[in-house]
Design brief:
The chain is an alpha/beta fold. The chain has a single domain, classed as Rossmann fold, CATH 3.40.50.450. 53% of the residues lie in helices and 12% in strands. It contains eight helices and seven strands, in the order H-H-E-H-E-H-E-E-H-E-H-E-H-E-H. Strands 4-3-2-1-5-6-7 form a seven-stranded parallel beta sheet, with helices on both faces. The chain is globular and about 55 Å long.
């Protein structure tokens, strides 16, 4: 079995390497005007169709909170259980839950929302090794995108808050995007909650000791996010933020 798996992994690596080389070569290939026009026109219409579908479906969902986190986390992982718990509590407070639609933390978020009979939204994305929408997403609230940037617009436009569980590059990307948009006042401020002091602590220390000290960001930019350790604390940050404005979910 081990030999079979290792051969399969080797084959996948070779295929990935060949595809990567093809993409690099294509980037340097001269194209005539007809090829450029045809290719660009198709992309424009595909992007437009993804925006239209996203706007039409998500405009109706009501107040929601997005839960981000690793797709690699298994159901027996404490962070999976925590994300599921957070989603349940958010639904009980009147919010729907949005995730990236895949496995791991995303699945946990949708599972918690479904368990509490709340709205469970999945913004999935096509990946080289296909990522399928998890089974806990409401059938009418699953959207699958080709383009990461369109998907990111949907997260920001239709979320009243971000819960950021432990994750990898994708999670950090979404976190950075939201912080940048709020910092530059391109969007209104909304609560961003990092869950897991042990996991995020090293990065926060680096931000304080390097980014702030080197004056790459302002000290007050540290107030753009909250760092917590429990589901109750995470949900409380969302409630307290909107409580200041006497706002609450209405569905």
């Amino acid at each position: 079995m081990a030999t079979k798996n290792s051969k399969k992994e080797k084959t996948i690596k070779i295929q990935d390497a060949l595809e990567e080389e093809h993409r690099i070569r294509q980037a340097f290939k001269d194209k005539n005007w007809a090829e450029i026009k045809s290719s660009d026109s198709w992309v424009i219409f595909k992007v437009m169709s993804e925006f239209v579908e996203g706007f039409e479906k998500l405009a109706k969902i009501g107040p929601c909170v997005t839960i981000f986190g690793s797709a690699r986390v298994k159901p027996n992982n404490p962070y999976y259980k925590m994300a599921e718990n957070i989603a349940e509590q958010l639904v009980l407070q009147g919010y729907g839950v949005i995730t990236g639609g895949g496995p791991g933390i995303m699945e946990a978020g949708n599972k918690g929302a479904r368990k509490a009979s709340g709205k469970s939204v999945g913004l999935n994305i096509f990946l080289p090794h296909e990522q399928k929408g998890n089974i806990y997403i409401d059938a009418d609230k699953l959207i699958t995108f080709d383009y990461f940037f369109v998907r990111k617009v949907m997260f920001v436009k239709y979320s009243q808050g971000f819960i950021v569980m432990p994750g990898g590059f994708g999670t950090i990307d979404e976190l950075s995007e939201a912080l940048t948009l709020i910092q530059t006042k391109k969007i209104g401020r909304f609560p961003i909650v990092l869950v897991g002091k042990k996991f995020w602590g090293g990065m926060i220390e680096w931000i304080k000791k390097v980014l702030v000290m080197e004056k790459m960001i302002s000290p007050e930019d540290l107030d753009l996010f909250n760092l917590v350790d429990t589901p109750e604390e995470a949900v409380a940050v969302i409630d307290e933020f909107y409580g200041k404005y006497l706002l609450s979910p209405n569905f």
